[in-house]
Amino acid sequence: EKGVVDERMDDLGVAMVVGAWLAMAQTQTLEGVVTDASCGLTHKMPDAKACTNGCARTGGYALVVGDKVYKLEGKTDGLAALAAEKAKVTGTLSGTTMTVTAVAKAG
Hints:
Helices cover 31% and strands 37% of the residues. By secondary structure, the protein is α+β, with helices and mostly antiparallel strands. A hairpin with a 2-residue loop joins strand 2 and strand 3.
């Protein structure tokens, strides 16, 4: 039978696992080119800025980093001004979706 100390040690172990999981979901900053989620790497219009802002109205914004495309959600204010330009986007990454907390021109 477990004693009080054993139960507290079990709770501590669970807390450490949860803490490690939360640490993996830390805020990160990615630098890449602002695009839209519909076009991704290849725009359908010759004017990339106009295409990005037009397509983002329905599909949302994204960030191209190398050959990866990350969908941007959350605080996306300021992305229209940076469409088709390099930007630094800060937020929490989950797979290929970033929940944005800050956006700045790369530079």
